[in-house]
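Please, why this fold?
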Amino acid sequence: MRILLAEDERDLNRIIAKKLTADGYSVDCCFDGAEALDYAASADYDVMVLDIMMPKLDGLAVLRTLRQRGDATPVLLLTARDAVPDRVKGLDSGANDYLVKPFSLEELAARLRALTRTRYGQASAALTVADLTLDSASHTVTRGGRPITLSAKEFQLLEYLMHNQGRVLSREQIENHIWNFDYEGGTNVVDVYISYLRKKIDGGQAVKLIHTVRSRGYVLKEGDPST
């Protein structure tokens, strides 16, 4: 999914972004609180990771502003402070989770997956539509028990479609959610990746799961997309 990472320690920012990108996330990186608010107002994120000690605006000020705006995006706070009052203050300000530095990148990834599941009302790491299953923890996809190999971007797109199963997503929604601000590709990128997915997911299958809804976009569901 798409993540906003606000961390002013540039080396740590780079390391986290590299890990999350390798896990298939689209990551927008910034280095101060004012920039974080600008990014948050410009895109739809699944999760935001905010360092507490940042220049211009600290993470708590950013968090309070987001909540005052009515932005309910899950937020994970990063901090070097591990005192209980500090953690309580962060959670009471509207944070969904809290991670103390230094931390394991694998733990951070697991916590972000958990926050994403919470946002979409998902009980486990596995998403299922008909005989198609995607497991975000093991990063595997199967259909009818047959393993399907996807690129990181294909996996991300399929996960987004499955999180929104039965809901028609416009090309603009998909592009804004799957590709970050650094993307400089072609205007038909969504159509291209939907085509890739169809070949791998629906190729040779009697029941098609990925449907085009004319003039509206794409939907993943079992059966007629108009119903």
